Amino acid sequence: MKKATVLVVDDDQDLLTASRILLRPNVKEVLVEHNPEKLINILERNPVDVVLLDMNFKSAINTGNEGLFWLSKVKSLFPNINVIMITAYGAVDLAVKSLKQGASDFIVKPWQNDQLLQTIQAALDENKPVQKPNPINVSRDQHGIIGKSAIMEDLQYKLDKVAPTEANILILGENGTGKDLIASAIHQRSLRHKQAYVKVDVGSLTETLFESELFGYKKGAFTDAREDRKGRFEHADGGTLFMDEIGNISLQQQAKLLSVLQNRAVVPLGSSQSIPVDIRLLSATNVPLKALADESRFRKDLIYRINTLEIQVPPLRERVSDIPLLAEHFLSFYNSKYHKNIAGLEQDAIAKLKTYHFPGNVRELQYSIERAVIMSDRSSIRGEDILFSPIEQQQVEEPTSDVFSSHNLEEMERKAIKSAIDRYNGNISKAAKELGLTRAALYRRLEKYNL
Fold first, then answer.
1. What is the distance between the alpha carbons of residues 123 and 128, in angstroms, rounded to a whole number?
2. Per-residue pLDDT reduced to its tens digit, 351-384
3. What is the 3-state secondary structure (H, E, C) of 139-201?
4. How far is the C-alpha of 125 from the C-alpha of 106, rounded, in Å?
5. CA distance 240 to 278
6. 158-184: b or e for each residue (b if 16 or more CB lie within 10 Å)?
7. d(CA 264, CA 268)
Protein backbone atom coordinates (compact mmCIF):
# COMPACT_ATOMS: atom_id res chain seq x y z
CA MET A 1 0.00 0.00 0.00
CA LYS A 2 2.92 2.32 0.68
CA LYS A 3 3.65 2.36 -3.07
CA ALA A 4 0.05 3.02 -4.13
CA THR A 5 -1.62 6.17 -5.43
CA VAL A 6 -5.25 6.52 -4.39
CA LEU A 7 -7.81 8.87 -5.94
CA VAL A 8 -10.95 9.76 -3.93
CA VAL A 9 -13.88 11.19 -5.91
CA ASP A 10 -16.78 12.50 -3.83
CA ASP A 11 -18.77 15.73 -3.69
CA ASP A 12 -18.58 15.79 0.13
CA GLN A 13 -15.66 18.07 1.01
CA ASP A 14 -15.57 16.84 4.62
CA LEU A 15 -15.18 13.26 3.38
CA LEU A 16 -12.37 14.30 1.04
CA THR A 17 -10.55 16.00 3.90
CA ALA A 18 -11.02 13.02 6.23
CA SER A 19 -9.87 10.51 3.61
CA ARG A 20 -6.80 12.60 2.79
CA ILE A 21 -5.83 12.73 6.49
CA LEU A 22 -6.38 8.97 6.90
CA LEU A 23 -4.64 7.83 3.73
CA ARG A 24 -1.67 10.19 3.58
CA PRO A 25 0.47 8.21 6.12
CA ASN A 26 -0.52 4.87 4.57
CA VAL A 27 -0.10 5.34 0.81
CA LYS A 28 2.37 6.94 -1.58
CA GLU A 29 0.03 9.68 -2.81
CA VAL A 30 -3.57 10.77 -2.19
CA LEU A 31 -5.51 12.65 -4.86
CA VAL A 32 -8.98 14.07 -4.15
CA GLU A 33 -11.62 15.47 -6.48
CA HIS A 34 -15.21 16.62 -5.89
CA ASN A 35 -16.22 16.84 -9.56
CA PRO A 36 -16.56 13.46 -11.36
CA GLU A 37 -16.35 15.25 -14.71
CA LYS A 38 -12.60 15.62 -14.06
CA LEU A 39 -12.10 11.95 -13.18
CA ILE A 40 -10.92 10.70 -16.58
CA ASN A 41 -8.57 13.64 -17.06
CA ILE A 42 -6.95 12.94 -13.69
CA LEU A 43 -6.46 9.26 -14.55
CA GLU A 44 -4.88 10.20 -17.88
CA ARG A 45 -2.33 12.39 -16.12
CA ASN A 46 -1.60 10.27 -13.02
CA PRO A 47 -0.66 6.59 -12.46
CA VAL A 48 -3.53 5.80 -10.08
CA ASP A 49 -3.81 2.33 -8.49
CA VAL A 50 -7.14 2.61 -6.65
CA VAL A 51 -10.14 4.91 -7.13
CA LEU A 52 -12.63 5.46 -4.30
CA LEU A 53 -15.76 6.52 -6.19
CA ASP A 54 -19.00 7.83 -4.69
CA MET A 55 -22.25 6.25 -5.90
CA ASN A 56 -24.13 9.58 -5.85
CA PHE A 57 -23.09 13.09 -6.84
CA LYS A 58 -26.52 14.72 -6.78
CA SER A 59 -27.91 14.54 -3.27
CA ALA A 60 -31.48 15.09 -4.46
CA ILE A 61 -31.34 12.00 -6.67
CA ASN A 62 -29.47 9.31 -4.73
CA THR A 63 -29.98 6.63 -7.36
CA GLY A 64 -26.37 5.54 -7.66
CA ASN A 65 -26.57 5.89 -11.44
CA GLU A 66 -23.89 8.58 -11.52
CA GLY A 67 -21.41 6.30 -9.80
CA LEU A 68 -22.24 3.38 -12.10
CA PHE A 69 -21.80 5.63 -15.13
CA TRP A 70 -18.33 6.76 -14.06
CA LEU A 71 -17.40 3.22 -13.01
CA SER A 72 -18.19 2.07 -16.55
CA LYS A 73 -16.07 4.87 -18.00
CA VAL A 74 -13.08 4.05 -15.79
CA LYS A 75 -13.20 0.29 -16.43
CA SER A 76 -13.53 0.75 -20.19
CA LEU A 77 -10.55 3.15 -20.42
CA PHE A 78 -8.40 1.89 -17.52
CA PRO A 79 -9.31 -1.77 -16.93
CA ASN A 80 -6.38 -2.37 -14.55
CA ILE A 81 -7.38 0.33 -12.08
CA ASN A 82 -9.24 -1.00 -9.04
CA VAL A 83 -12.43 0.92 -8.22
CA ILE A 84 -14.04 0.82 -4.77
CA MET A 85 -17.56 2.25 -4.65
CA ILE A 86 -18.72 4.45 -1.76
CA THR A 87 -22.35 4.54 -0.64
CA ALA A 88 -24.11 6.17 2.31
CA TYR A 89 -27.57 4.93 1.47
CA GLY A 90 -29.32 1.58 1.75
CA ALA A 91 -28.57 0.78 -1.88
CA VAL A 92 -27.09 -2.68 -1.43
CA ASP A 93 -28.59 -3.82 -4.73
CA LEU A 94 -26.85 -0.97 -6.57
CA ALA A 95 -23.59 -1.71 -4.79
CA VAL A 96 -23.80 -5.38 -5.78
CA LYS A 97 -24.60 -4.26 -9.33
CA SER A 98 -21.40 -2.21 -9.29
CA LEU A 99 -19.42 -5.34 -8.38
CA LYS A 100 -20.90 -7.15 -11.36
CA GLN A 101 -19.84 -4.21 -13.56
CA GLY A 102 -16.22 -4.45 -12.49
CA ALA A 103 -15.85 -2.67 -9.14
CA SER A 104 -13.40 -4.33 -6.76
CA ASP A 105 -15.55 -3.76 -3.67
CA PHE A 106 -17.83 -1.24 -2.00
CA ILE A 107 -17.73 0.44 1.37
CA VAL A 108 -20.44 2.19 3.38
CA LYS A 109 -19.89 5.64 4.83
CA PRO A 110 -19.35 6.56 7.58
CA TRP A 111 -16.72 3.83 7.53
CA GLN A 112 -14.30 2.51 10.12
CA ASN A 113 -10.77 3.60 9.27
CA ASP A 114 -9.27 0.11 9.64
CA GLN A 115 -12.00 -1.33 7.43
CA LEU A 116 -11.29 1.19 4.65
CA LEU A 117 -7.56 0.49 4.75
CA GLN A 118 -8.21 -3.27 4.63
CA THR A 119 -10.54 -2.82 1.66
CA ILE A 120 -7.92 -0.81 -0.24
CA GLN A 121 -5.24 -3.39 0.60
CA ALA A 122 -7.49 -6.24 -0.60
CA ALA A 123 -8.09 -4.39 -3.89
CA LEU A 124 -4.35 -3.90 -4.37
CA ASP A 125 -3.70 -7.60 -3.64
CA GLU A 126 -5.91 -8.65 -6.52
CA ASN A 127 -4.62 -8.80 -10.10
CA LYS A 128 -8.13 -8.20 -11.38
CA PRO A 129 -11.37 -6.81 -9.94
CA VAL A 130 -13.10 -9.03 -7.45
CA GLN A 131 -16.18 -10.50 -9.05
CA LYS A 132 -19.11 -12.11 -7.31
CA PRO A 133 -17.98 -15.63 -6.33
CA ASN A 134 -19.47 -18.69 -7.96
CA PRO A 135 -21.89 -19.99 -5.32
CA ILE A 136 -21.21 -23.59 -6.33
CA ASN A 137 -17.53 -23.28 -5.39
CA VAL A 138 -17.97 -21.17 -2.26
CA SER A 139 -17.81 -22.76 1.15
CA ARG A 140 -19.83 -20.55 3.46
CA ASP A 141 -21.31 -21.04 6.92
CA GLN A 142 -25.00 -20.54 6.16
CA HIS A 143 -25.92 -19.83 9.82
CA GLY A 144 -29.22 -21.63 9.39
CA ILE A 145 -30.17 -19.96 6.10
CA ILE A 146 -31.31 -22.65 3.67
CA GLY A 147 -31.53 -22.05 -0.05
CA LYS A 148 -29.59 -22.43 -3.30
CA SER A 149 -31.83 -20.34 -5.54
CA ALA A 150 -30.29 -17.36 -7.31
CA ILE A 151 -32.22 -14.91 -5.14
CA MET A 152 -30.95 -16.56 -1.95
CA GLU A 153 -27.36 -16.71 -3.21
CA ASP A 154 -27.66 -12.99 -3.92
CA LEU A 155 -28.98 -12.45 -0.39
CA GLN A 156 -26.12 -14.47 1.10
CA TYR A 157 -23.64 -12.40 -0.88
CA LYS A 158 -25.16 -9.17 0.42
CA LEU A 159 -24.96 -10.49 3.98
CA ASP A 160 -21.28 -11.32 3.50
CA LYS A 161 -20.67 -7.72 2.39
CA VAL A 162 -22.71 -5.83 5.00
CA ALA A 163 -22.23 -8.03 8.08
CA PRO A 164 -18.59 -7.02 8.83
CA THR A 165 -19.50 -3.32 8.73
CA GLU A 166 -20.87 -1.31 11.64
CA ALA A 167 -23.83 -0.10 9.57
CA ASN A 168 -27.30 -0.17 11.10
CA ILE A 169 -29.41 -2.52 9.00
CA LEU A 170 -33.16 -2.59 8.41
CA ILE A 171 -34.45 -6.03 7.43
CA LEU A 172 -37.64 -5.95 5.37
CA GLY A 173 -39.92 -8.82 4.45
CA GLU A 174 -43.31 -10.40 4.83
CA ASN A 175 -44.31 -12.35 7.92
CA GLY A 176 -42.74 -15.79 8.07
CA THR A 177 -39.83 -15.11 5.70
CA GLY A 178 -37.16 -15.50 8.40
CA LYS A 179 -36.12 -11.94 9.21
CA ASP A 180 -34.95 -12.99 12.69
CA LEU A 181 -32.75 -15.67 11.12
CA ILE A 182 -31.20 -13.06 8.83
CA ALA A 183 -30.51 -10.79 11.82
CA SER A 184 -28.81 -13.63 13.69
CA ALA A 185 -26.70 -14.47 10.61
CA ILE A 186 -25.58 -10.84 10.30
CA HIS A 187 -24.43 -10.86 13.93
CA GLN A 188 -22.63 -14.20 13.53
CA ARG A 189 -20.72 -12.86 10.50
CA SER A 190 -19.95 -9.50 12.12
CA LEU A 191 -16.88 -8.32 14.01
CA ARG A 192 -19.05 -8.40 17.15
CA HIS A 193 -19.91 -12.11 16.89
CA LYS A 194 -18.16 -12.95 20.17
CA GLN A 195 -20.18 -10.31 22.02
CA ALA A 196 -23.81 -10.24 23.14
CA TYR A 197 -26.70 -10.67 20.72
CA VAL A 198 -29.88 -9.30 22.28
CA LYS A 199 -33.30 -9.55 20.65
CA VAL A 200 -36.40 -7.61 21.65
CA ASP A 201 -39.84 -7.57 20.02
CA VAL A 202 -40.48 -3.86 20.39
CA GLY A 203 -43.81 -4.11 18.58
CA SER A 204 -45.28 -6.02 21.52
CA LEU A 205 -44.13 -3.57 24.21
CA THR A 206 -46.73 -1.30 25.76
CA GLU A 207 -46.01 2.39 26.31
CA THR A 208 -45.27 1.74 30.01
CA LEU A 209 -42.95 -1.22 29.36
CA PHE A 210 -41.07 0.30 26.43
CA GLU A 211 -38.67 2.48 28.43
CA SER A 212 -38.09 0.10 31.32
CA GLU A 213 -37.47 -2.87 29.01
CA LEU A 214 -35.12 -1.04 26.64
CA PHE A 215 -33.42 1.50 28.91
CA GLY A 216 -33.66 -0.16 32.33
CA TYR A 217 -34.66 1.36 35.67
CA LYS A 218 -33.38 2.20 39.13
CA LYS A 219 -34.74 0.79 42.35
CA GLY A 220 -37.84 2.73 43.42
CA ALA A 221 -38.50 4.19 39.96
CA PHE A 222 -42.02 2.75 40.14
CA THR A 223 -44.07 0.53 42.46
CA ASP A 224 -42.59 -2.85 41.52
CA ALA A 225 -39.03 -1.61 40.95
CA ARG A 226 -37.44 -3.45 43.90
CA GLU A 227 -33.90 -3.42 42.49
CA ASP A 228 -31.84 -1.84 39.74
CA ARG A 229 -32.29 -3.51 36.37
CA LYS A 230 -30.37 -3.07 33.12
CA GLY A 231 -32.31 -2.55 29.90
CA ARG A 232 -31.76 -4.34 26.61
CA PHE A 233 -29.45 -1.58 25.35
CA GLU A 234 -27.05 -2.11 28.26
CA HIS A 235 -27.22 -5.89 27.91
CA ALA A 236 -26.23 -5.50 24.26
CA ASP A 237 -23.34 -3.11 25.01
CA GLY A 238 -20.38 -4.08 22.83
CA GLY A 239 -22.56 -6.41 20.75
CA THR A 240 -25.69 -6.36 18.61
CA LEU A 241 -29.23 -5.30 19.46
CA PHE A 242 -31.99 -6.69 17.23
CA MET A 243 -35.29 -4.81 17.42
CA ASP A 244 -38.05 -6.83 15.76
CA GLU A 245 -41.35 -5.38 14.51
CA ILE A 246 -39.98 -1.85 14.75
CA GLY A 247 -42.59 -0.64 12.26
CA ASN A 248 -45.31 -1.11 14.89
CA ILE A 249 -44.04 1.24 17.60
CA SER A 250 -45.86 4.50 18.32
CA LEU A 251 -44.60 7.97 17.45
CA GLN A 252 -43.97 8.63 21.15
CA GLN A 253 -41.83 5.49 21.40
CA GLN A 254 -40.03 6.49 18.22
CA ALA A 255 -39.05 9.84 19.75
CA LYS A 256 -37.54 8.11 22.80
CA LEU A 257 -35.68 5.62 20.66
CA LEU A 258 -34.34 8.34 18.36
CA SER A 259 -32.91 10.24 21.32
CA VAL A 260 -30.98 7.17 22.50
CA LEU A 261 -29.63 6.41 19.02
CA GLN A 262 -28.52 10.00 18.51
CA ASN A 263 -26.78 10.26 21.88
CA ARG A 264 -25.59 6.64 22.05
CA ALA A 265 -26.56 6.68 25.70
CA VAL A 266 -29.53 5.59 27.81
CA VAL A 267 -31.05 7.14 30.92
CA PRO A 268 -32.69 4.45 33.08
CA LEU A 269 -36.08 5.27 34.58
CA GLY A 270 -35.64 6.92 37.96
CA SER A 271 -32.15 8.17 37.12
CA SER A 272 -30.73 11.42 35.83
CA GLN A 273 -27.40 9.91 34.77
CA SER A 274 -26.88 8.82 31.17
CA ILE A 275 -25.06 5.54 30.49
CA PRO A 276 -23.03 5.29 27.25
CA VAL A 277 -23.82 2.25 25.10
CA ASP A 278 -21.95 0.82 22.13
CA ILE A 279 -24.32 -1.28 20.03
CA ARG A 280 -24.73 -2.32 16.43
CA LEU A 281 -28.44 -1.96 15.65
CA LEU A 282 -30.43 -4.38 13.52
CA SER A 283 -34.15 -3.79 12.98
CA ALA A 284 -36.89 -5.68 11.19
CA THR A 285 -40.43 -5.01 10.03
CA ASN A 286 -43.04 -6.44 7.70
CA VAL A 287 -44.18 -2.89 6.90
CA PRO A 288 -43.05 -1.86 3.39
CA LEU A 289 -40.48 0.92 3.31
CA LYS A 290 -42.87 3.07 1.28
CA ALA A 291 -45.41 2.88 4.12
CA LEU A 292 -42.75 3.70 6.72
CA ALA A 293 -41.93 6.86 4.77
CA ASP A 294 -45.36 8.22 5.76
CA GLU A 295 -44.41 10.65 8.54
CA SER A 296 -47.85 10.38 10.13
CA ARG A 297 -46.86 6.79 10.89
CA PHE A 298 -43.09 6.78 11.24
CA ARG A 299 -40.50 9.50 11.81
CA LYS A 300 -38.29 10.00 8.77
CA ASP A 301 -35.30 10.99 10.91
CA LEU A 302 -35.58 7.66 12.74
CA ILE A 303 -35.70 5.75 9.44
CA TYR A 304 -32.36 7.27 8.48
CA ARG A 305 -30.92 6.28 11.86
CA ILE A 306 -31.94 2.62 11.63
CA ASN A 307 -31.53 2.21 7.87
CA THR A 308 -27.95 2.82 6.80
CA LEU A 309 -28.48 -0.31 4.72
CA GLU A 310 -31.56 -2.38 4.03
CA ILE A 311 -31.93 -6.08 3.33
CA GLN A 312 -35.06 -7.39 1.59
CA VAL A 313 -35.89 -11.00 2.50
CA PRO A 314 -37.74 -12.63 -0.41
CA PRO A 315 -41.09 -14.37 0.09
CA LEU A 316 -41.16 -18.13 -0.45
CA ARG A 317 -43.15 -17.77 -3.68
CA GLU A 318 -40.10 -16.05 -5.23
CA ARG A 319 -37.77 -18.95 -4.36
CA VAL A 320 -39.82 -22.00 -5.30
CA SER A 321 -36.72 -24.06 -6.11
CA ASP A 322 -35.75 -23.88 -2.41
CA ILE A 323 -38.99 -25.49 -1.22
CA PRO A 324 -37.75 -29.13 -1.48
CA LEU A 325 -34.58 -28.23 0.47
CA LEU A 326 -36.58 -26.52 3.20
CA ALA A 327 -39.13 -29.33 3.34
CA GLU A 328 -36.40 -31.96 3.74
CA HIS A 329 -34.79 -29.87 6.48
CA PHE A 330 -38.03 -29.60 8.44
CA LEU A 331 -38.76 -33.30 7.86
CA SER A 332 -35.41 -34.23 9.40
CA PHE A 333 -36.03 -31.90 12.34
CA TYR A 334 -39.50 -33.23 13.13
CA ASN A 335 -38.46 -36.83 12.55
CA SER A 336 -36.04 -36.33 15.43
CA LYS A 337 -38.48 -34.37 17.57
CA TYR A 338 -41.35 -36.86 17.26
CA HIS A 339 -39.18 -40.00 17.06
CA LYS A 340 -40.35 -40.84 13.55
CA ASN A 341 -38.39 -42.47 10.71
CA ILE A 342 -40.00 -41.00 7.60
CA ALA A 343 -37.59 -41.43 4.70
CA GLY A 344 -38.55 -38.44 2.56
CA LEU A 345 -41.19 -36.74 0.44
CA GLU A 346 -42.85 -38.36 -2.57
CA GLN A 347 -42.83 -36.47 -5.87
CA ASP A 348 -46.53 -35.64 -5.61
CA ALA A 349 -45.89 -34.08 -2.19
CA ILE A 350 -43.06 -31.96 -3.58
CA ALA A 351 -45.20 -30.95 -6.56
CA LYS A 352 -48.03 -29.96 -4.24
CA LEU A 353 -45.69 -27.81 -2.15
CA LYS A 354 -44.14 -26.14 -5.20
CA THR A 355 -47.51 -25.15 -6.68
CA TYR A 356 -48.86 -23.66 -3.46
CA HIS A 357 -48.60 -19.89 -2.97
CA PHE A 358 -47.54 -19.95 0.74
CA PRO A 359 -48.92 -16.63 2.04
CA GLY A 360 -47.39 -17.59 5.41
CA ASN A 361 -44.00 -18.16 3.74
CA VAL A 362 -41.37 -20.41 5.35
CA ARG A 363 -43.21 -20.49 8.66
CA GLU A 364 -46.30 -21.92 6.98
CA LEU A 365 -44.19 -24.53 5.15
CA GLN A 366 -42.62 -25.53 8.45
CA TYR A 367 -46.00 -26.04 10.14
CA SER A 368 -47.30 -27.98 7.12
CA ILE A 369 -44.38 -30.42 7.33
CA GLU A 370 -44.76 -30.72 11.10
CA ARG A 371 -48.44 -31.66 10.75
CA ALA A 372 -47.60 -34.17 8.03
CA VAL A 373 -44.94 -35.83 10.19
CA ILE A 374 -47.28 -36.04 13.17
CA MET A 375 -50.18 -37.51 11.21
CA SER A 376 -48.37 -39.79 8.76
CA ASP A 377 -48.03 -43.54 9.41
CA ARG A 378 -46.18 -44.21 6.17
CA SER A 379 -42.49 -44.47 5.35
CA SER A 380 -42.67 -41.30 3.24
CA ILE A 381 -44.75 -38.14 2.95
CA ARG A 382 -47.32 -38.19 0.12
CA GLY A 383 -49.23 -35.32 -1.43
CA GLU A 384 -52.38 -36.24 0.50
CA ASP A 385 -50.45 -35.89 3.77
CA ILE A 386 -49.74 -32.22 3.05
CA LEU A 387 -52.40 -29.91 4.46
CA PHE A 388 -52.21 -26.15 4.41
CA SER A 389 -53.29 -23.86 7.19
CA PRO A 390 -56.84 -22.46 6.91
CA ILE A 391 -55.53 -19.39 8.76
CA GLU A 392 -53.67 -18.24 5.67
CA GLN A 393 -56.00 -17.04 2.95
CA GLN A 394 -54.81 -16.84 -0.63
CA GLN A 395 -54.33 -13.25 -1.65
CA VAL A 396 -54.79 -12.89 -5.36
CA GLU A 397 -53.63 -9.51 -6.60
CA GLU A 398 -56.13 -8.00 -8.95
CA PRO A 399 -55.87 -4.63 -10.61
CA THR A 400 -57.86 -1.93 -8.92
CA SER A 401 -61.02 -0.94 -10.71
CA ASP A 402 -59.52 2.22 -12.15
CA VAL A 403 -56.23 0.76 -13.49
CA PHE A 404 -57.71 0.17 -16.93
CA SER A 405 -60.63 2.57 -16.72
CA SER A 406 -59.26 4.39 -19.76
CA HIS A 407 -59.35 2.70 -23.17
CA ASN A 408 -56.49 4.82 -24.51
CA LEU A 409 -53.77 2.30 -25.35
CA GLU A 410 -50.86 4.47 -24.24
CA GLU A 411 -52.60 5.28 -20.95
CA MET A 412 -53.31 1.58 -20.38
CA GLU A 413 -49.66 0.73 -21.04
CA ARG A 414 -48.48 3.48 -18.72
CA LYS A 415 -50.73 2.27 -15.89
CA ALA A 416 -49.74 -1.36 -16.41
CA ILE A 417 -46.05 -0.43 -16.20
CA LYS A 418 -46.56 1.73 -13.12
CA SER A 419 -48.56 -1.05 -11.44
CA ALA A 420 -45.80 -3.60 -12.10
CA ILE A 421 -43.06 -1.24 -10.89
CA ASP A 422 -44.99 -0.50 -7.68
CA ARG A 423 -45.78 -4.17 -7.10
CA TYR A 424 -42.08 -5.08 -7.19
CA ASN A 425 -40.89 -1.98 -5.30
CA GLY A 426 -38.93 -0.67 -8.27
CA ASN A 427 -37.24 -3.96 -9.20
CA ILE A 428 -36.83 -3.50 -12.95
CA SER A 429 -35.93 -7.12 -13.70
CA LYS A 430 -39.03 -8.54 -12.03
CA ALA A 431 -41.34 -5.90 -13.48
CA ALA A 432 -39.94 -6.46 -16.98
CA LYS A 433 -40.41 -10.22 -16.65
CA GLU A 434 -44.05 -9.81 -15.61
CA LEU A 435 -44.72 -7.39 -18.45
CA GLY A 436 -43.02 -9.64 -21.00
CA LEU A 437 -40.40 -7.01 -21.85
CA THR A 438 -36.63 -6.88 -21.83
CA ARG A 439 -35.02 -4.56 -19.27
CA ALA A 440 -33.91 -2.24 -22.09
CA ALA A 441 -37.44 -2.09 -23.50
CA LEU A 442 -38.87 -1.32 -20.06
CA TYR A 443 -36.31 1.45 -19.51
CA ARG A 444 -37.35 3.02 -22.82
CA ARG A 445 -41.00 2.99 -21.76
CA LEU A 446 -40.18 4.41 -18.33
CA GLU A 447 -38.44 7.31 -20.08
CA LYS A 448 -41.30 7.65 -22.57
CA TYR A 449 -43.93 7.93 -19.83
CA ASN A 450 -41.68 9.89 -17.44
CA LEU A 451 -42.06 7.25 -14.71
1. 8
2. 999 999 999 999 999 999 999 999 988 899 999 9
3. CCCCCCCCCCCHHHHHHHHHHHHHCCCCCCEEEECCCCCCHHHHHHHHHHCCCCCCCCEEEEE
4. 16
5. 9
6. bbebbbbbbbbbbbbbbebbbbebbbb
7. 13
